[in-house]
Amino acid sequence: MSTDEKTNLNAEGKPLPLSRCPVCAHAMDQATCVAGGHRPKPGDFSICIQCGAILRYGPDYALCAASTDDASTDDLRFHLRLVQYAVRRLRKTP
Length: 94
Ligand SMILES: [Zn+2]
Description:
The structure is a single chain. The chain is 20% helix and 15% strand. By secondary structure, it is α+β, with helices and mostly antiparallel strands. The chain has one domain (19-92). A three-stranded antiparallel beta sheet has the order 3-4-5. Strands 1-2 form a two-stranded antiparallel ribbon. Strand 1 (19-20) and strand 2 (27-28) form a beta hairpin. It is globular, with a radius of gyration of 13 Å. The model has no long low-confidence stretch (mean pLDDT 89). It binds zinc ion. The site of zinc ion has 8 residues, from loops.
């Protein structure tokens, strides 16, 4: 990833606050969209890069625990599981 991509900005162009994964407590203040070109906004899903937990941005951009049951479509559920699988597989690689 190039350093000029503003991965620490939300959809309003403001810095994401430091937030901890509610599952593993990993601290995060950046986000990368796997499809590119999207900055997070409240209600968007995220995946913890440390443990692969499915998360969601709250109104203040704090990360909240979520699940595939919260996804509105089968396509979104599929993509959440796909990214979750990729992160967990990455973390198991020595
Ligand atoms: Zn986590």
